[in-house]
Amino acid sequence: MTTSSASAPKRGPYAKSKQRRENIVIAAHEVFAEHGYKGGSLQVVADRVGMSQTSLLHYFPSKSALLLAVLNWRDTVTGDGGSRSPEESLASAVIRQARFNETVPGVVELYTVLCAESLTAKHPGRDYFTQRYEGLRRSYSRSFTALAREGRLRSGVDPERAAASLIALWDGIQTQWLMDPDSVDMAQCLQDYLDFLILPE
Amino acid sequence: MTTSSASAPKRGPYAKSKQRRENIVIAAHEVFAEHGYKGGSLQVVADRVGMSQTSLLHYFPSKSALLLAVLNWRDTVTGDGGSRSPEESLASAVIRQARFNETVPGVVELYTVLCAESLTAKHPGRDYFTQRYEGLRRSYSRSFTALAREGRLRSGVDPERAAASLIALWDGIQTQWLMDPDSVDMAQCLQDYLDFLILPE
User: The HTH tetR-type domain covers which part of the protein (chains A, B) (predicted)?
Assistant: First the structure.
């Protein structure tokens, strides 16, 4: 976020409404992470922000609209699917993100629970996750292809399968970590795999 | 299953009861795979087997008891967590299982959905999945250690992390495959990883 001056934020109706929306999204994030989307009730979200369900529906017209707001908010918080500077290597960006994720188990849980739940019938998060995987596979695949051009991808590695596998390993190790945080070192497992794929400069 | 003779099965009260239990478990499997455990209702399961909810509860005293029966039944169907013959290599057993899983998307979906859902508050499947991961990590870790003793584990590979990573990659690639079956070749991604870890004889 950038601001044009360091002065205190205005507290007009717009700022208040924006703050309320964010409070609702943060509460919904907690509730969906704890109970899943289907198991999480709008009433519980409304209770957490001290609002009636009717007032809440003034900000988000449906539970599915709230879900999408939560997913997009999550992307902002984690920087996920987002940018790395042109100077940062793929491996460094992955490990940095993995280490960050260790500090926000609730955010990782939300993602893991909703992603799997979105496989169930008529789930409103399905398109979000399908597109997210497509985008991530494309992005990593491009990075591996670029490394191959520099002669830094291990011989025989297929960029597309490596992209899908890296995402898969990351998702799966997060699940094991959420089940039992002491059982696995997420970042080290990812580092092992990246060390295999990518040759040193 | 073994039978002492090839004669038609007896249709006494015990056999009928056993058959009903199995029908309930199969219906519950479908319902939980489609809607998750929390979203799947006992009434829908009862409807699918043409039984009242009260009669169903005579066979399984609670929804959570039914969940555990479904998870155990799944293990029987997939042979998961189960045996490989001493002659079969780890890699061959993994690829065989992965190819089999491609033929039973509903079973894979049930596992993926319930596993993630078990991370949510007070989920009755949590212990099952925690123990399953512990057992699988131990088993694969032992196999990698045995390969290391034969000089067939790639230098620098840590057996415990490789075990966790293999399971993680497998889980994660299944999720991507369920989202979009044409987007990934599950068995080939696993084969790539095993080819990296394990040196040829």
Answer: 18-78
